[in-house]
Amino acid sequence: MLKRKDLLGLIDISAEEITEILDLAQEFKNRIKRGEKKMNHLDGKTVTILFYENSTRTRTSFEQAAKYLGATAINIEASTSSVAKGETLVDTGKTLDAQRNDFIVMRHPMGGAPYLLAKTVKAGVLNAGDGINEHPTQALLDMLTMREVYGSLKGLKVAILGDIKHSRVAKSNLFGLKKMGAEVAMYAPQTLIPKGMDQLGAKICKSRQEALDGADVVMGLRIQLERQEAGNFPSLGEYAANYGVNEELLSLAKPNAIVLHPGPVNRGVELTSGVIDHERSHIEDQVLSGVAVRMAALTLMNEARRGN
Ligand code: CP
User: Does 56 sit in the ligand 1 pocket, CB within 6 Å?
Assistant: First the structure.
């Protein structure tokens, strides 16, 4: 059972907890597909969404998840809050706690920030991406999308190509997928693969071909231009030509392999438009999985708070 006040990362979550979230998320996804958008699992609860970084998918899907479950959702933009006047994260957390918020969903550019907030507040904290550390609900929605296609994650080969160094999505997927029995193959320029990924269980490949060969899932990751130091690769054009995935390379994966990308996508850089819009692309389906996974995480954390 998910008995957690907070959901901060997949590094310390068990396969059983992941399965519990995915099972419930699948139920929610089926209900949303049937047009159900009014549920009462979080009736009377408040979910505050506190983002110190830009977002489209994560922020809106947490808001939708909270509202579909009957909660009140409140959005705070750091740029228009008292953070802009110098308020610390801890003081912001104390303020939100004093208002009796039940859950705080936070995205922050500093790795570890949600851990600090979680220690400070009584509210349950959900990490919506902290720097280059983790993005747990993104990896959970990726796993839900894969599991819906394949029935199980065990034994799948997941090829992850792109900016692994700056990717919180890559780390959360690695932690989660390894626990669920999948193989994770990674490929990027050496400058975009952090040391130690192999020790965490990733297979570091020497070529795109090696990573894609026999893959069940091809996951592209965005080149994070906003976090890039100079010198990681010569130019976006050369990155695309030497490290990106096009339809010819995609054909090295299994015939029914699916294409994933957490978004936002740099079209024509990590993936060509032909791959992004391919009939086997599940990129839009990932977005719906995101609403369902966030509904499941909030519901299970709420039950844990009630002691169920
Ligand atoms: N995948 C993801 O985190 O997207 P956003 O930055 O749009 O939330």
Answer: yes
- For residue 51, give both structure tokens: 């983002």
Q: Looking at the DSSP assignment, which residues form a beta bridge with residue 7?
A: 126
pLDDT digits (tens, 9 = 90+) for 26-77: 999 999 999 999 999 999 999 999 999 999 999 999 999 999 999 999 999 8
Q: Distance from the CA of 98 to the center of ligand 1, in angstroms?
A: 29
Q: pTM above 0.85? A: yes
Mutation test residue for ligand 1: of 50, 57, 77, 266, the one with most atoms within 8 Å of CB: 57
Give 48 Cα–ligand 1 centroid separation in angstroms: 17
What distance in angstroms lies between residue 265's CA and the mean position of ligand 1's atoms? 10
Where along the chain do its domains lie?
15-134+287-307, 136-283
15-134+287-307 homologous superfamily: Aspartate/ornithine carbamoyltransferase (3.40.50.1370)
Give CA separation, 131 vs 49, 64, 109, 243, 265, in Å. Answer: 17, 24, 4, 24, 18
